[in-house]
Amino acid sequence: VRLESFTLHPHLRAAFTGREEGNQASHTGADPDAVAGARALVASGLGFPPERLRYLHQVHSARVAAPAGPGGIAPEADAMADVTGDLAPVVLTADCVPVLIAASGPDGVSRLGVAHAGRRGLLDGVVPAAADALLRGGGERLEAWIGPSICAGCYEVPAAMRNEAQALLPGIAASTTWGTPSLDLVGAVAAQLRAIGALVHVSGACTLEDPSFFSYRGGDLTARNASLIWAA
Ligand SMILES: [Zn+2]
Q1: What is the Å distance from ligand 1's center to 130 Cα?
Q2: pLDDT tens-digit series, residues 66-90
């Protein structure tokens, strides 16, 4: 697990799991008991009960959901906003960009957000939608961690796809290290967050190049890394 902290919200933590913590995704046909065990180990290792974990049924949308109730079904959405500060929202990725967003209100309560920013959801605005849900929930002083994901030097896409993305999000167009069209997902997420005044931290790890993380393009078609935020 890679552990990080927030500077404006020093009681909040960010964690990014990888290959060592095992597959954290239940939607890809994995053995449910193995996934539940891997998830519980992550929570206990971080010092809180697994009941605090809250997942999404991710569908590459820009939809923001409230966390499910205890034992409830994961909502179909790609962002979550916990305005109670009591939970540990989780986003699952294996090349897409995991985004953890913190805010707190004048009441002292933390607002915790996560977003799953793949190419489609990113272009459709899932990241600002997640941040906006925290602001509308009374949060202030946005601060975000962008977790391990495929880098601009590796994320090759067809030229037409790069052009379509660039038209929607100027600055996202990039090139691979071997000179073909690519997209800078992390740069685009960071730009969207900074545009709304958030303090942004970037993990910098590339899931395709760093073997400690699962990577879809690297051949991990069903396993996912977990990125989560919680109040320590
Ligand atoms: Zn890379």
Answers
A1: 26
A2: 999 998 999 999 999 999 999 999 9
